[in-house]
Amino acid sequence: MPSIYFDFGFYLLLAAVITGVVTLLDKFWWQKKRIEAGAVKYDEKGKEKYPAFIDICRSFFPIIFIVLLLRSFLYEPYRIPSGSMNPGLYDGDFILVNKFAYGIRLPALNTKIIDVSDPERGDVIVFHPPHEPQQAYIKRLIGVPGDRIEWDRGTLTIIPQCTDGSDVSNQGCDPITVQSEFVSDKVNDLVPQGEYFDTYEEVLGDKNYKLVYLNDNANNGRVHSLDDRWTAVIPEDKYFAMGDNRDGSQDSRAWGFIHEEGIIGKAAYKWIFVTFTDEPVLFGKHLPKGISFSRAGAIN
Questions:
Q1: Residue 284 has pLDDT above 90, yes or no
Q2: I need a labelling partner for 116 at 20 to 30 A (CA). Which of 12, 42, 73, 279 fits?
Q3: Domains, in order of start, for the chain
């Protein structure tokens, strides 16, 4: 049975259903009853004055329906909630998620009804994680169904399912080696506690992107990614993703594989960057204190 995701899309769908049903009932039933009963009232321009609730529904239904269509099938706005995708995306970036990149899905249920394409390695995706299905996470897709992933201290080897270990001659079946290359011991000023991080670079497919790793100055008692080794085999209909902030991301290394039905869409564009107050201001919430469009652009 498909899961129901109680996000903003669910409540938008609920509002569209309620206002739509009321609008249709009034148009084809209640309005006739008012006319027959002689209970129709008109304003000074000769237009019918609807009962208050019906008037609200008839006014807002077209707007809600259009927003639902745009948000469910084209682009959905999303706020980056943490630093797990530093240095490409920061807490405070607002982005647009391409909802049709991987197929058309029903709102609230997220069930795919029209297939468009499959997620590709290197894509930045927004999804519902398996351990918190009502939340939306953003990470970089590293492995697709059937891949065997081997991580060895900064070197990532992806062995596609079509490789049996003896014949790697088929196009697209060769093992993929991705090496994290050191760029600088400096990071962007937006990276929190930047003195403990170094900047690296990776190329996966046609995606070229920056990463950050903890450096030797960060003695926090845990294993750093550049000292770690592990292997994972991705089951069918599942995906493996990691944050670009490799030592500051809870991702598939911690909570496992992403379900295909949990994928929301492909992160496409940054459009605004907002800074918030350091302390809660109103009802325990941090309020915006600065807005910038300088980071606007496509997401790599």
A1: no
A2: 12
A3: 8-73 (no CATH), 75-298 (2.10.109.10)
